[in-house]
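Homework-ish question, so no full write-ups if that breaks the rules, but can someone show me the predicted structure for this set?
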Amino acid sequence: MAKRKIVGVTGIRSEYDIMSSVFKAIHEHDGLDLELIVTGAHLSPKYGLTIKDIERDGFKIADKIESLISGDFASSRVKGLAVQLQGMIQTVTRVNPDFLIVLGDREESMTTALIGAYLNIPVVHLCGGDKVIGNVDDQVRHAVTKLAHLHFTTNQESSERIVKLGEEPFRVYNVGNPGLDRLLNIPELSCEQLSERLGFQILDGEPFLLLIQHVISTEIEHAYEQMNTTLEAVSRLGIKTVLSYPNSDAGSQEMIKAIEEHSQLPFLFISKNIPRLEFVNIMRKASCLIGNSSAGILEAPLLKLPVVNIGNRQKGRLHAQNVQFVEHEISSICDAVSKALYDEEYKKIVYSCENPYGDGQSSHRIAKILADIPIDNKLLIKEITY
Amino acid sequence: MAKRKIVGVTGIRSEYDIMSSVFKAIHEHDGLDLELIVTGAHLSPKYGLTIKDIERDGFKIADKIESLISGDFASSRVKGLAVQLQGMIQTVTRVNPDFLIVLGDREESMTTALIGAYLNIPVVHLCGGDKVIGNVDDQVRHAVTKLAHLHFTTNQESSERIVKLGEEPFRVYNVGNPGLDRLLNIPELSCEQLSERLGFQILDGEPFLLLIQHVISTEIEHAYEQMNTTLEAVSRLGIKTVLSYPNSDAGSQEMIKAIEEHSQLPFLFISKNIPRLEFVNIMRKASCLIGNSSAGILEAPLLKLPVVNIGNRQKGRLHAQNVQFVEHEISSICDAVSKALYDEEYKKIVYSCENPYGDGQSSHRIAKILADIPIDNKLLIKEITY
Amino acid sequence: MAKRKIVGVTGIRSEYDIMSSVFKAIHEHDGLDLELIVTGAHLSPKYGLTIKDIERDGFKIADKIESLISGDFASSRVKGLAVQLQGMIQTVTRVNPDFLIVLGDREESMTTALIGAYLNIPVVHLCGGDKVIGNVDDQVRHAVTKLAHLHFTTNQESSERIVKLGEEPFRVYNVGNPGLDRLLNIPELSCEQLSERLGFQILDGEPFLLLIQHVISTEIEHAYEQMNTTLEAVSRLGIKTVLSYPNSDAGSQEMIKAIEEHSQLPFLFISKNIPRLEFVNIMRKASCLIGNSSAGILEAPLLKLPVVNIGNRQKGRLHAQNVQFVEHEISSICDAVSKALYDEEYKKIVYSCENPYGDGQSSHRIAKILADIPIDNKLLIKEITY
Amino acid sequence: MAKRKIVGVTGIRSEYDIMSSVFKAIHEHDGLDLELIVTGAHLSPKYGLTIKDIERDGFKIADKIESLISGDFASSRVKGLAVQLQGMIQTVTRVNPDFLIVLGDREESMTTALIGAYLNIPVVHLCGGDKVIGNVDDQVRHAVTKLAHLHFTTNQESSERIVKLGEEPFRVYNVGNPGLDRLLNIPELSCEQLSERLGFQILDGEPFLLLIQHVISTEIEHAYEQMNTTLEAVSRLGIKTVLSYPNSDAGSQEMIKAIEEHSQLPFLFISKNIPRLEFVNIMRKASCLIGNSSAGILEAPLLKLPVVNIGNRQKGRLHAQNVQFVEHEISSICDAVSKALYDEEYKKIVYSCENPYGDGQSSHRIAKILADIPIDNKLLIKEITY
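A: Not a homework solution, just the prediction itself:
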């Protein structure tokens, strides 16, 4: 029997970090063939030209679609979405896959879902059903759900939300978060190895923070101030801190400005792009993750890493007990970090928390479904349930 | 107080016919200013270059955005959507309106909704919540609902469906179908006047059919055959029939081919573009509307016009008792038309039917809401209700 | 040694008719591999969906790039050019050929030349150096010459003009018109065969005209009137006439309108798309070609076919003695046709004319050069000669 | 009489610095109205978001067209050109100007020229006819000449070259370099004022260098190494040096990397964007300009500033005796700088050099021509002269 052809779409490092194990499982499945469309921030030197990681991973690249506009307006993002869509329809027409697969709520999700819907190619959407108020991403995520044909969620709550959105239940699978699959398989680095690769010292037993903070699309005008507040808290705490650059969203230039203004702090180590291997090992060794990265919600529980989530970005998401939510306010941030580092009661709770986002076996589960599910009118013709 | 600036988006005659009375009500409201983005089929000679109608109506045109690809593939539609989006972001950035307003489930709805969502400009969506299975339009319509900020529905059922989709109830208004507003105001033409304008004879008391049939996006490969079946039924019935061209969707070329093959039927009168005035007067005088036009569902009840709806396009929609649903099958079509013309019982039922789509006062209702509703974070930040 | 990879770009039937023998020669050359980018009118049902001919010819298609805007404005053409360019850069980046090859002065030539110039891939341009005043095509053709790296002209005069334009002489080859290669190889059809394929009768010995007339971009507003004048002349002449539709340029819709208004003439046979085989056999049997097709200048001399060229489109081009130039004026057209059909002196001159556009061996000449020429800085870095 | 409407197109600070005085002269002319299309690097925070300068200058902005792709490939530039063209056709269609005006050989020139040619709107091209071998810009500049209707050159040599390119002589005016107009009018800053604005000290009488170096499109792979060599020379010279960032061309990221690696040099002062006022005053006070900026060729003679031009970028251009040309070689650079600073003979020659690029009165000359020249077929229909 002919192999099913799967086209995966990836646009940025943060999402590829989750998807790469899914791509690997598809690539290695006997009944499936994989090609990738690489677009967006992957092709920008400003975000580390991460297409090189994808090429190193050895996946077949169907097309590279340059789409990231060098701009910091909200309009830049829409322009980029349009450019991406205009290129992607050409690729999908040529490759004519059996499935399109994409994750999340960024431009890539929308373009992929639109193409699948209009071309009658089933769209597999990962991480739908999540709820993160206060962000255009939330609108986009649910809109993509209404366009997509299969929904692979990372948790039970999201599966239920998707069914409430009128999706037929047979389309919805709680497969767990595939980001965890790769997490567990990533090799252990010693502090020495890690220090050498990063270019600054991580000492055994020395406490340190990991800081990642992204722009919220409805709070773009506060981007500078939000990053500044966090860095002022870091400054007051005086604890060694590893900072990784924000994503390429509108407003990120403002955040980078705040970072550059703090670049002289002696205990602050700034990196534009931490490769996944180093990143996971930093998470394993860090005392606390601060900012608003989804890694704090999704991955940290499996690693028993305390998280101080600042501001609205992850608010309202299903989370384990390792996460404290605080406002953009210096002393609240400092207090929460102190609790995470020094409160023994709280540390025990974190140590025994369970991850509502799965068990690290998601990727093979996904590949199996893609190989087995019938591609028929039941799958292709969507019917709202009410 | 400064007037609120409204940008309306219109892409095709069939939708403009409904929207023009809304545009008029906005234009005439003291607290509102209107500019239109004219795009898609309006700028194509193939579909009658209907931008001329808009210019004649005297609305300010913010930009003309050519976007219709001369192609009959499903991909042509996506390419056009991308081109439209790439142009429209430029216009909206320049005009920077207080509201964007758009109707339905075509490419225009999606591009408008995406721009509003990313630019944090409230999107007003008309005719959401309807349910028409078996069509990419259905997926697009519900996805647009998830992106838009205000929902003006044409009927109670659709309002309820939108709330079930997780939209906050304060965003949803059942305003009725604004297409009916203009319908009631359109001047009466005598049979003589109508005949002269159309170039063929409509006689007082003589029965005749009005035929409009569009392509279903999931049944593109049957487009030719579906139109052919309908025309064969017309051929067998032998009743005078006025045919209006299908919309510019993928597959429409195939339908046009079938039309051209029947162009020699002596009682068949074909028109590429019937202006609204003539169209409504034809509906007033016709004995029966056949095909799958939404006019049969939405407008015909107000005019007490019997409808024979062929195939899946309008299936499952809320409708009055004037509509009979039949398959693409010659004798079923003929039987239903005969019933509509000659069954006195059924004719009485049609004559007394009520329109679930409103009372012809929708446009002023809409303008008033746009002038009065606070534009604040409650409106701008969407929160899914579960 | 690795084969050289050639990417050919084709956008419309009229140009493909000339290029297909070049593509064939490249495809069959041991040292060369060919892939085609198919775009523009080839993908539009309105222009006969001629990509099917290309698929039938068996060339590898690198990408299909939909780009033709369904519009009749001058802006439609630019929009289409932009869409084409945005798609083509993606394809060329993926395929990364050793040469790009394109013919003429349409949108395809400009997009291909721009991509080659910026990507440092040598661009091979056919039919540059020609001079046709009064048309944006003329500006585009010479601009493409300034961007391209190799110039294959169809005649000595054009080669000399290109050198005068400051191009280094080693870049310029007079290879003759490759359209003639295929012309000579096209099988002979009898009048019976031809009649059957066309659906109307061509009789042995019966005189008939072939009419092809395109829009001039600087005279778009006269498009209707120009076609109308020609058809009025045909009407007065009363000679059997075969008419082929104009190209997909702005204004062509107006010409089509004039054609439709004359469609009732009993001796006029209209075809939207005459396949090449039939077309050449019509040229072989026709008494005279009228209109403004380049076939009259380029191919007719080899077939000893008299031509009446109407208006400015081919004015000033190098031509053999088979061509008479007339204005858009009914009686001038009639007189010239009469001379072509009945003036024995003139007929002798036509019969013995020589073709300044080559000998029918151009394609193999081109393939050989592409296989042999060194690809080095001399080729890649252009130096204006003054 | 109605004012003539002029649309100017500007894409980057370096070009706007020259054009702004032309825009001012047009804006202030009684018979002319000006609107600007602002695009490309002007809208990118990476290049200083220089649209703010334009807004401050008070010109009417017809549209902002985001087009700069965040990428460092040669393809990024073409993609950006396509995006720009797709947006610009919309603006020009709306504004429908009497003239389009643009400068140089960047993407903006090509898009503007194409639109004017296809829309039959006369294109005014500044700085055509220059000759800079070894760069795609050269091909683009001459191609734009073949598309444009009026050529305003900065020197006699370029005017003659344009006529040799087959342009009709009446289309060519040697108006001088308008960049010089503004140069002369820019207020004088004292060393103290300048130091304060720049954030580092410029001392009266203290020698210092100004360094500006851009990427050459055919030598992208050497971008890092070229900048590195120059900075190594600076390092060896040990003279105070003010460095301004390269333009947003492919490869510029590599140059920025080399700059960042030298950022610790105590006598090196780096600026991402030096405003024009400060820039000109730096030129007035600097001892020598090094790198490959066109300012060295075009403006420096008027200011009697010695220039060491490194590499191929300006090679072969008409220049005054203030310019020394050297290779990318450390000791050659050092020698030439020493000669410029310490060789009294040479300093005298520089002091008395004449500027072949005009007298600082170009802008009013241009405005007058645009107001007076007849817009007729002679202007609109181009005829190659051989």
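Now go work out the reasoning yourself. Hint: The CA atoms of residues 12 and 41 of chain B lie 5 Å apart.
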